[in-house]
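Minutes, project check-in
Item: structure for the 267-residue chain
Input as provided by the requester:
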Amino acid sequence: MAKKIDFVAIFFISYTLLFVLFRNYLHSFLPAFFVAGVCSLTLIISIYVFSAKKRPYSYDRLLKEFIKRPGFAISLVSKCLKNPSLIRGENYIANDNAVIFFMYKISPLSPADLLSVINVTKSLGLNKVFIATKAIDRKAYSLLDDEKIKLAIIPISAVFKFLKKENALPELAKTKTKLNLIALFSTFLDRQNMRFYLFSGTILIALSFITPLTTYYILCGSLSYFMALLCLSPLGKGNFKKEKVFDAFKENKQISIDELLEKENKV
């Protein structure tokens, strides 16, 4: 799903830039509209074909497997290193110079996660640490202010390339994720994105006073403001589909046949 959103974002960004460029040189709306669309679509197809040929599956597919199977990543990397002198922990491997933690989670690592990394690193007497993870919460970095520890993140792409180089990539089936429009619009209209739409709208409308393409800048700026308004609406809370979930858990008040006969006899 994230990859599809990336492709949609690349298309709209490239299309907007190319449209402004071609509109300035072609001096006509329809040719610029058509040429920009064709070029943007060609760019997306080229990126997709180029990325699909080199890898048996995507980085996200391997990341998902590491998240679902804790300890799988460190097991694969340890087998490739073939170094019996390494210090091996539950989620880390270390030598005399540095330590590598494998901490894959759906969400960024929390301050508590980073605090455990700091404590283990200090107990090993090291000051250089690498963390193979998706991301780290920005607030967690403040814990390093008083520590003499150098930290760096190992992206999933680096782990993927290392395992591929060592012919140790696990055999994973490709998963085809369907485009979920509800999730897509929930991402675009998340309330936290309001400030970004307001900023971009203000910049575009301000630039309309100094560019010859006044109409298009005002139009795009107004569209950004409209998206900001949608973020403030109930749609910004993800209320795209109101399902009556709790109704299925209510007490079943249907009367049985015996109870119905009993009531009729009383009457």
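Outcome recorded: Strands lie at 87-88, 92-94, 99-102, 128-132, 150-154.
No further action items on this chain.
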